[in-house]
Design brief:
Layout: E1 4-7, E2 10-13, H1 24-28, E3 31-39, E4 42-43, H2 46-59, H3 68-82, E5 87-94, E6 111-118, H4 124-129, E7 131-137, H5 152-163, E8 168-172, E9 178-181, E10 185-190, E11 193-196, H6 207-218, E12 223-225, H7 230-234, E13 238-243, E14 247-254, E15 257-258, H8 266-279
Helix pairs in contact: 6-8
């Protein structure tokens, strides 16, 4: 089955899709994006993803004429053309193609790119055994709540983590508190209470993060949104990640520190089961 792309009004095979070399997303990182997935051909949490996309567009003052209904139709069509029941869908909007300049161009239409391809998930073994992550200094910009295409710090941290045999890189703020991972949100469990860093400009509040928080509250699993220190992370009973492709994934080692007994914990497993019921 083919990977499909849509670029400014035209569908094609992904390897034949092109954008201008003068596109501001390519030249300046001047754009925002969303990543979502399908479950059995159904776009998951599409409304929440599009709400976040429009917040990001407003935050960077990118003028457009897109509607949620139009973008949803295009994503559904991309998935249909790909034929994948479990697809990864990427949507990116940039400030368009024009000569390179820092100020906003006038009268330039935005560039819209959508792709749909086969979804690659964490292995069953990784989910069963848990994964190892490593810490990294958080040197990103101060508006991480905007889903910007400027991801170089995330790329560098993720590459360093992979080279070290780790699943993810966890960013640590200058004050020693956790923010988030390069591609996921972080949670710990202590004495049966689930804890995750609160919403702020320092993290991107993931859609799966919000779903897991809602599930915990619905099923009366104690949960707090508050700052977490590195010391508290190492002393946690359980640690897990959430994300669109990560879903709910247990962490059993951070750097050289084993988390509790080094095995996925019961609260993490319970939340994963609830999440599967939610998306099923």
């Amino acid at each position: 089955m083919p990977a499909i792309a849509y670029v400014n009004g035209k569908f094609s095979l992904i390897e034949k899709a092109v954008v201008s070399v003068e596109d501001r997303g390519f030249q300046l990182g001047d754009g925002v994006y969303e990543v979502l997935r399908t479950y059995n051909g159904r776009l998951h949490a599409i409304e929440a993803h599009l709400r976040r996309l429009f917040r990001s567009l407003a935050a960077i003052e990118l003028k457009h004429h897109f509607t949620a209904a139009r973008l949803e139709r295009l994503m559904r069509e991309a998935v249909r053309r790909s034929g994948y029941r479990d697809a990864l869908v990427y949507l990116q909007v940039t400030r368009g193609a024009t000569k390179r300049m820092k100020e906003f161009p006038k009268g330039v239409p935005p560039t819209l790119v959508i792709t749909a391809r086969s979804l690659e998930l964490s292995s069953r073994a990784a989910r069963r055994r848990g994964v190892r992550i490593m810490t990294a200094k958080d040197v990103r910009w101060l508006r991480c709540d905007v889903k910007s295409v400027c991801l170089l710090p995330n790329v560098l941290a993720a590459n360093k983590a992979k080279a070290a045999g780790c699943y993810e890189a966890l960013f640590i703020a200058p004050d020693g508190t956790l923010t988030e991972c390069a591609s996921a949100n972080i949670f710990i469990v202590k004495h049966g209470v689930v804890i995750t860093p609160p919403k702020s400009a320092n993290i991107l509040a993931g859609i799966t993060r919000e779903e897991v928080i809602a599930l915990a509250r619905k099923h009366r699993i104690p949960l707090k949104e508050r700052s977490i220190t590195l010391k508290q992370l190492f002393a946690a009973d359980e640690v897990f990640l959430t994300g669109t492709t990560t879903e709910v994934l247990p962490v059993v080692r951070v750097d050289n520190h084993r988390i509790a007994n080094g095995k996925p914990g019961p609260v993490t497993q319970r939340l994963y089961e609830l999440f599967l019921e939610h998306v099923g």
